[in-house]
Automatic annotation (TrEMBL):
Lineage top rank: taxon: Bacteria
Subunit structure of this chain's protein: Monomer. Associates with 30S ribosomal subunit, binds 16S rRNA.
Domain CP-type G: residue ranges: 118-278
Gene, per the UniProt record: rsgA
Protein family per UniProt: Belongs to the TRAFAC class YlqF/YawG GTPase family. RsgA subfamily.
Official protein name in the record: Small ribosomal subunit biogenesis GTPase RsgA
Enzyme Commission number(s) of this protein: 3.6.1.-
Cofactor(s) needed for function: Zn(2+)
Residue span(s) of domain EngC GTPase: 126-276
Length: 343
């Protein structure tokens, strides 16, 4: 077969497939607008996306715990778990909302992004109030791991919280790790200590979660799963927040999900394996410097506009270290992280 003939055939096939696809989409839209026009769907109301599967979403109404399987109006794109939306529900003869259509997306306060397979940043969750960076007495956090997480969190604009887990393993008197934590508290970061080994081990965490939407991140083995299992003890509760037919879904493990926490006052958790792995990947030197919050007062004050804060004369950061306004270990950590970006 000649090359040209093949490509003509291919072109024809592609065009046919595209035409069919467009026709299907147009039909679907027409059906939806008919239903909307015919008043099959009820009033517009607010809700929040609790899970998403392509063009299908689970939306939890503001006045209910049970999410409703919804599809998207054709002109809407890129909704993620945590998005606030306006939607309309369709009721069955018994007056129960059985399905819905999302008609608009609300403003986002924040968005968490992750690089996709091609390295392009894609939103994975929205309207998160705080990133809980979990680390543990064991495995001991290696130097500047905490800083790396803090920088990544600062770059999202979402408030970080440090959670030290497994405090049942702390030595008498607290040891170095607690001293390190005090330093972070001094910088203004909230610090919470936890243990899943004691009945009251999560009290401080519950208080911190109340009234907010949170995500847990942190290195393997620090106890994220254990903490989340304790916060959402009832497996059914995790699944029960979803509409019935989404339980059958096979693609349910990778999407981020939003869970209401049973024991804390209007606390919500967004979780997925991808979110837990949140890390430093895609930052540049500028973002790293800005991620050290105590550097911010000094950035832009160096003598040279393109100062890289190494040994340049008139470097505002180096002078601040000299004066004791920046902790030398934080500055050393900054340097190591910048160097690791280069290699
Ligand atoms: N002593 C002690 N062990 C804990 C505590 N919390 C969790 N562990 C243990 O730490 C180990 C790791 O906990 P996981 O919850 O699997 O940690 P993770 O962060 O989810 O790890 P990945 O799934 O690899 O990301 C398990 O053996 C837990 O039993 C704690 O508060 N104290
Ligand atoms: Zn400088």
């Amino acid at each position: 077969m000649s090359k040209r003939k093949l490509s003509r055939q291919q072109r024809w096939r592609i065009e046919k497939i595209q035409a069919e696809r467009a026709e299907r989409a147009a039909k679907r839209d027409a059906r939806e607008s008919e239903k909307l026009a015919a008043g099959e769907y009820g009033q517009e109301r607010p809700g929040r996306v609790t899970a998403h599967f392509g063009r299908t979403l689970d939306v939890r109404p503001e006045d209910s715990d049970e999410a409703v399987r919804c599809h998207l109006r054709a002109n809407l794109e890129g909704l993620v778990t945590g998005d606030r939306v306006i939607w309309r529900g369709r009721e069955d003869p018994d007056g129960r909302v059985v399905e819905g259509v999302v008609v608009a997306r609300g403003e986002r306060d924040s968005v968490l992004e992750r690089p996709d397979a091609r390295g392009q940043l894609k939103p994975v969750a929205a309207n998160i109030d705080q990133i809980l960076i979990v680390f543990a007495v064991e495995p001991e956090p290696h130097p500047n791991l905490i800083d790396r997480y803090l920088i990544a969190a600062e770059a999202t604009g979402i408030a970080p919280v440090l959670v030290l887990n497994k405090i049942d393993l702390l030595p008498e008197g607290g040891g170095e790790l607690l001293a390190l934590l005090r330093r972070y508290e001094g910088l203004g970061y909230p610090v919470v200590t936890t243990t899943t080994e004691r009945e009251d081990g999560l009290d401080a965490l519950h208080a911190r979660l109340a009234g907010r939407t949170s995500v847990f991140v942190g290195q393997s083995g620090v106890g994220k799963s254990s903490l989340i299992d304790r916060l959402l003890p009832d497996e059914e509760l995790r699944i029960g927040a979803l509409s019935k037919d989404s339980r059958k879904g096979t693609h349910t493990t990778t999407t981020a999900r939003l869970y209401p926490l049973p024991d804390a006052e209007s606390a919500e958790l967004i979780d997925s394996p991808g979110i837990r792995e949140f890390g430093l990947g895609h930052l540049d030197e500028q973002q790293v410097a800005e991620g050290f919050i105590e550097f911010r007062d000094f950035l832009g004050r160096c003598r040279f506009r393109d100062c890289r804060h190494r040994h340049e004369p008139g470097c505002a950061l180096l002078e601040a270290v000299e004066r004791g306004e920046i902790h030398p270990e934080r500055f050393a950590s900054y340097r190591r992280i910048v160097e690791s970006l280069e290699s």
